[in-house]
Every structure is written in structure tokens, then in C-alpha cells.
Amino acid sequence: MLMSLVSTAQINYEKRLEIDLRNGYSGETIYESANGYFVLESTADDKVDGQTQVKYDLYSGDLELKQTETALIPRGMKFNEMFYNDEFVFNIYSNKQREFVIVSINMKDLSITKTNGELPPKAVLTSMKVLGDYAYFMARIKSAGFVYKVNLENGKGTSFPIAIGGFSPKKLMNENYQLLEKSNEILSFTRAFVKKKVTELYMSRITQDGTIEKPVKLQGVGDNSIVSVSGCRVDENKIVISGTYAKTGLMSEGLFFGEVEDNGVNYMRYYNFLDLKDFLSYLPERRQEKIEKKKAKKEAQGKEMSLDYWIADHDVIVLEDGYLFLGEAYYPTYRTETYYTAGPNGTMVAHTRQVFDGYQYTHAVLAKFSLEGELMWDVCFEMFPGYKPFYVKRFIAISEQTASQISMVFTSYNHIVSKSIDFNGSILKDEKWEVLATGDDSEKTKRTFSNIDYWYGNYFLAYGNQVVKNGKEKRKVYFVNKISF
């Protein structure tokens, strides 16, 4: 998404929307569109004839309510997966009988369509993506993985097993799959288990008509182990791939950058995180010094340091003399949860378990690679969003790109940050502005939970739950602030 950006050296609170949280609905979710509107989804607290009522409110760029529609989810259906873009929201629900319904919401006019169908027996579906008239899922039946495609017009499903010659389905595991909207194709990355702790990684391309091309081996036995991977098509015959790697195990040690052309690998280059400029600059100095000492000790032993970051990378930008890479570093977090089971003689026994608690983002790297994959320069900078998403999200928005520089906007802690960097790696602009809880200095807030996301143009949306106190008045609301910068 490209736009012109005029720096005002300040932020303005354009408008605030408040919704009473005691209005019979809960579970508020916002879907922003870069077209200048958003949809607020919420679920009714009470059932309607045993069915779940989901409400969709369409708001304009001025935060004015334009339209409201509702959808009824059949009895027994539970939410599974979601996908949305600037035009549509898609939610899939299913029941124990393997029946499903995909609810499609057009964000422009809130027209709602439903697609009914039946899932394959014992199939587990994850990672929903939609391209054209089809919804795609990463799927498994027991230990066999495949891509599952659903026709949104008639609900008919088609399975696409990913076959790697010489390996049984039980020896294959889907590592990642991507929907490339610009080129209307899917990239599927599959790990093949040669023997215990020894794997190979393959990339398969699935065309829009469902044709599966011959897999390309990206990592063989004895190569660096690829921990996470994604791809980006840069021309008709060429795909660049990037992600994180490790010498051994699953603890990532750095970035890799590669190029695949005509079903063959042109090159794979590996760069340790600690060889990047200021990759740990977001950490306190004492922590940085400790890691650097540990790195030196490892190198003296002929080993590499592991930091265990994952990278959410953006589409690679093709320049005349190379590629521009932007990636956001994150790691999974967990919390300890206590639960109880019935013990002997009717007593209750306490147990604890680790529960996934979202991805914590910490910093980002912008790097330029030559056409041969050599690292030309890199710039690392802190980005610490105010919340931890439960899916891999890209917080940074490219606000402007010219022939010689790139500009980005994102949030870090309670600030909106704007950075401009030229294609030689020099920082041209670095500004940030603090975001107030309500935009009103006279009001105090308690128990605020809020997200700040880039919206469109030079606007952000701040939204979430708040208890706001103004004098003796206290209100519990779901709020949306439109903020310009």
C-alpha cells in the first residue's frame, strides 16, 4: 500500500466512538479496511432459538455508523478460523458432525453470504486463507498433511496432498503455506523426515486451478536447518525466500535469504542475528553485554549463538540492484494455568499447564540484499506493540516508497513511530508521538486494554475496553479513537 505522508510533528485525536459494554453484546473485534472504513463484529450474549447471533456494524472513516447486519450461526456450531482483507471478512464454524458454514461479509455494504459443506472425516483445519471464489486451509488427518480447498459458491471441498517422492505421508509435515494474492498461487513448505532429527525442506507451488508443481528441495541433509520460511514472487520465474535458520535444533540463530528460479535454488545465504547491526539494541546495555560475551565464548568453541527469534517478513521489495527485506522479530509467550480434576474420595486435585499467551514482538530489521543475496546493509529498531496477537501479524505499514527511500509507520509501547530510511541504509527521519488513553487530559482511565493499528492514509485506530472516570462519572465502554499524525 503506497501513499504520500506529510509529517505534522504531532498527533491529533480526530474523533472518539464509545459503545456501552452492557449492551447485550460482547467479544468485540475490529476489521479495518485500507479503503477508509471498518467493521465492528460482536456476539449477542443471548441465543436466538438456540442459534448464535453475530452482529456486524459498518463505520465510515468519520466513525459514523452507516449500517448494521446480523448473521445467525446454527445451533452447535463453534468458531474455527478467520481470514480478512480490505474487502471481505470470512469466518468458518463447524460442529461435531463435521458440518461447516463459512460466513462471508462484504465490508463495503455488509452483504452476507453463507457457504455450507461437510469436512473430511477426522480432518483438522487451520490457517484459513481466501483467494477469489475459494477458501484454503492447512489440514491434517492423523499424521498426514494436505491443503484443503472449499468452493465458496457450492461448499464442495477438494484435498491436495503434498507428495514428496520417496517419503510416506507420515514422514511429511506442513511447515507453512502462503497465499500469494498478487500472483494467485499458493506456496506450501513441507518438512520431510529422513530419520530422527534429520530433515529436508521442500517448497511446492499450487496454481489457481489446483495444479501442484514438482517440489523444490530448499534444505538437504547436512544443510543449515530452516526454522521458519516464507516466499515472495518477484517475477514470472523467480521467487525469493527468507526466514530463520539454525545449525541444529529449533533455536534460531539468524536470517537466511535465498532465490528460487525455474524450480531450482540459485543460492541460499545465512546471516547470524548477532552479525546484524544493532539487532539487540532494544535490550538493556547489561543484557547486550552478557549476550555479546556469550557469543564470543561460543565462537571460540567453533559454535554459533542461538537467540530463538522468529521473523514475520513482509513482501520483498525489488530494487534495480537488489532486494529490500523488512522483518519483525517475535517469539511465543506462555502462561501457567491452574485447573482441577476430581481425585479420590471426592477431593479436588490441582494441576498446572502451560498455555499459549500470544506472540511478543520486540524489534524489526530493514535490510538490503544484492541480487546475489549478499547483505549490503541493515538497520534494526525497536517496536514493542501494546498487545500480543494470537496469530502472526505485521504491525509495520509502509507509508511511502520513492525511488530512493522508504517510510514506515507503526506503534511501539504507547507511541506512534514514523521512520524514513534511504536505500543506502541512512535514517532520514525518526519521529514518535505519545498516544493518550482517551485523547482528553481531563479524563482518567482504569483497566484499559487497547490496540493501536495502522488504518489508512495518515490515520491510526486505537480501540479496546476502558473504564473511564470523569469527576464522579464512571463508564465502562468499548472505545475507538481515530488518530491522525
From the spread of the alpha carbons, the general shape counts as globular
Main beta sheet: strand number and arrangement? 5 strands, antiparallel
Residue share in β-strands: over 45%
Give start-end ranges of low-pLDDT stretches. Answer: 1-9
Number of helices: 1
Determine the fraction of residues in helical runs and give it as a percent range. Answer: under 10%
Name the structural class.
Answer: mainly beta
Straight-line N-to-C gap? 17 Å
β-strand number:
33
Q: How much is the radius of gyration in Å?
A: 24 Å
Mean pLDDT, to the nearest integer, reads 85
List the helices and strands and how they pair.
Elements: E1 12-20, E2 25-33, E3 37-44, E4 52-59, E5 65-73, E6 78-84, E7 88-94, E8 99-106, E9 112-118, E10 123-131, E11 134-141, E12 144-151, E13 157-161, E14 172-180, E15 185-195, E16 198-207, E17 216-219, E18 225-235, E19 238-246, E20 254-261, E21 264-272, H1 285-300, E22 310-313, E23 317-319, E24 322-342, E25 348-370, E26 375-382, E27 397-401, E28 405-412, E29 415-422, E30 427-434, E31 444-456, E32 459-470, E33 473-484
